């Protein structure tokens, strides 16, 4: 049973556009992600979010997947969004990345499981996610040296986007759905 603060919208209660989006999400992920099912109560926001996610995913090609995904994962972990941590783990697994190392994310600065580039991206995610932000000119200059201007823009955008996702899901009580273990529960079951 879902424990979200706003219940998921069941397909039988959804309009045609929302049903189509549920179908697309189920086709892409094997299940309807709970944030979609909760957002189904506001078709315009669901559509805007879905389009935004697709465009952002397709546009994010400047950074290696391991850099982008570990920074996004760290952001979700820092905010405390179990759904985003779960989904992010699945994405990393599907990208062929080592997910066992995620157990060492809290010790990234010294863990041999992370490269210097990954450490820099994680530290940047921490600086962007802190309140108030603690990003420095030197940090951005280092990232530009590592990833180029376009890479810094992509990294910054992805970390900012994950802050939005994680904070939205956390506020709505959306929790782990089982994507990382291939055992998804149906949001409206």
From TrEMBL:
InterPro entries: AhpD-like (IPR029032). It comes from the Bacteria. PANTHER family: 4-CARBOXYMUCONOLACTONE DECARBOXYLASE FAMILY PROTEIN (AFU_ORTHOLOGUE AFUA_6G11590), CYTOPLASMIC PROTEIN. This is Carboxymuconolactone decarboxylase family protein. It comes from Nocardia speluncae. The lineage of its organism: Bacteria, Bacillati, Actinomycetota, Actinomycetes, Mycobacteriales.
């Amino acid at each position: 049973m879902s424990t979200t603060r706003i219940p998921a919208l069941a397909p039988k209660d959804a309009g045609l556009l929302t049903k189509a989006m549920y179908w697309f999400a189920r086709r892409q992920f094997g299940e309807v992600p709970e944030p979609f099912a909760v957002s189904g109560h506001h078709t315009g926001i669901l559509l805007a979010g879905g389009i935004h996610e697709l465009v952002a995913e397709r546009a994010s090609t400047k950074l290696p997947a391991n850099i982008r995904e570990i920074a996004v994962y760290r952001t979700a972990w820092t905010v405390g969004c179990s759904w985003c941590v779960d989904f992010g783990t699945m994405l990393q697994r599907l990208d062929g990345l080592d997910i066992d190392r995620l157990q060492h994310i809290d010790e990234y600065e010294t863990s041999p499981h992370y490269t210097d580039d990954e450490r820099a991206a994680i530290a940047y995610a921490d600086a962007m996610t802190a309140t108030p932000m603690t990003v420095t000119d030197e940090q951005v200059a280092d990232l530009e040296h590592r990833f180029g201007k376009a890479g810094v823009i992509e990294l910054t955008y992805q970390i900012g986007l994950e802050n939005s996702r994680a904070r939205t899901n956390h506020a709505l009580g959306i929790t782990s759905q089982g994507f990382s273990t291939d055992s998804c529960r149906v949001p409206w079951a």
